[in-house]
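Thought: the user asked what DUF3899 domain-containing protein looks like in 3D. I have the sequence; next I should run the structure tool and report back without guessing.
Action: structure_tool
Action Input:
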Amino acid sequence: MGLIVALVMRILKQPLMVIGNLLFMIGLALLVLGMIGILAKGHLFTGWRRRRRKGDPVTKEEREKKIDVRHVATVKNSPIVVNGFARYGLISGGVYVVIGIILTLL
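Observation:
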């Protein structure tokens, strides 16, 4: 996608610095999306309870219900999952950042 935009801008006679800056920004956006993809599988909120509002009825089962600490520990200590979307975002974002820097320096 970014390379097509760069080619169209080159056809429209834009300077290399402008094209490099655009590719750098696209690369940064893809890196952020890749990191979001990794954090989405991170189980960051495992073990949290939903806060009740004042006046909500609390049943006896909810009072006695305990969070299984061992389950929370195994989920939180599981390996980091990098899915295809995150891998694509990180690799292509890194490539676009490098290309953007090279084009800016030319």
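Thought: the tool returned a structure. Summarizing for the user.
Final Answer: Structure for DUF3899 domain-containing protein predicted. The chain has five helices and no strands. Residues 15-39+90-106 form one domain.
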